[in-house]
Amino acid sequence: MSPQPKNVCKNWQLLAEGEKQGLYECFNIFYDDLYRFGLSLYKNPGLVKESIHNLFLELWHIKHKLGGVQNIQQYILVIFKRILYKTYRQCLEETQTNPSATGRFTENVSFEPSYEAILIASQQDEQMKIRLQNALEKLSPRQKEVICLRYFDKVAFKDIACQTGLSERTVYNTLHNAIKVLREVILWVLIFNSCWPYL
What we know:
72% helix, Rna Polymerase Sigma Factor, Chain: A, mainly alpha, Arc Repressor Mutant, subunit A, disordered C terminus
């Protein structure tokens, strides 16, 4: 892992003091490295993403214990490996008891729960509202149109296709790409509302 030590220490201390900004920044610093590391152990993006979410939920839960940590990167890796394995075992157990659960960690998932959660939670957190507005500005006009039709107007995929002249598959892909742009904001709203996203 290769983040700047000074930046890590500063934001880790904020996290240990219970500052949400410290948690946001630590997530931003470590996410890509954790994702790559997780994929090197388990070739399952959904499993790795859920494990990262679980890791930061745990760090927030035990924040009062983090002030004395000396080697932050190593500390995070040790916890992450444990959480990865635990999440993997839970997936296996669910699959054994409920065969329909095999699709839980696939990329083909519904985005409605995650996006509705961000909309609701953003109304209660001014900082999240600003982050969401900034993220929405990164979307193309077509992405914004599809987002509005799907989540604000509750239009079905086939009806969005008719209204926009796109195929249903293109509508789905457009929505998927828009959600990817909004992913970071969505993740943090869900973390602080104890939800479990599968983005």
